[in-house]
């Protein structure tokens, strides 16, 4: 998480034309190799789907983390500023709203 925050802060401060949005979730995934001639490694599942929805609906240069993700609360760089409900249409479980935390770099 700290690396994602540092990347967001660097891009924002450098006046780069790039914009970063990050969604972090934890949970079970299915992973595998895809391709016949050129191999690629990919992951699938509700965990990935939820993180992608968080990233797509967030503002630039902000890290959104699902409430259930454990982070080190004593770390001074992690500062949850806001709690939001993000609507998720899940692939394998009931759809609904999930709590997430907006994390800003201090």
Walk me through the structure.
The chain is α+β, with helices and mostly antiparallel strands and 106 residues long. The protein has one domain. Helices cover 22% and strands 38% of the residues. It has 2 helices and 6 strands; from the N terminus they run αβββαβββ. The strands form 2 sheets. Strands 1-4-6-5 form a 4-stranded mixed β-sheet. A hairpin with a 5-residue loop joins strand 2 (30-34) and strand 3 (40-44). The longest helix has 12 residues, at 2-13. It is globular and about 45 Å long. It starts with a helix and ends with a strand. The mean pLDDT is 78.
Question: What keyword list fits this structure?
Answer:
single chain; 106 residues; alpha+beta; four-stranded mixed β-sheet; two-stranded antiparallel sheet; 2 helices; 22% helix
- How do the strands line up in the largest sheet? 1-4-6-5
Query: What overall form do the CA principal axes indicate?
Result: globular
* Number of separate helices: 2
Rg to the nearest angstrom? 15 Å
Tally the beta strands.
6
Order of helices and strands: HEEEHEEE
Largest sheet: 4 strands, mixed
Q: What fraction, in percent, of the residue positions are helical?
A: 10-25%
**Which whole number gives the mean pLDDT?**
78
Name the structural class.
Answer: alpha+beta
Calculate the terminal CA-CA distance, rounded to whole Å: 13 Å
In total, how many domains does the architecture comprise?
1
| Amount of beta strand | 35-45%
Uncertain stretches: none
List the helices and strands and how they pair.
Blueprint: H1 2-13, E1 21-24, E2 30-34, E3 40-44, H2 46-56, E4 62-66, E5 78-88, E6 96-105
Parallel strand pairs: 1-4
Antiparallel strand pairs: 2-3, 4-6, 5-6
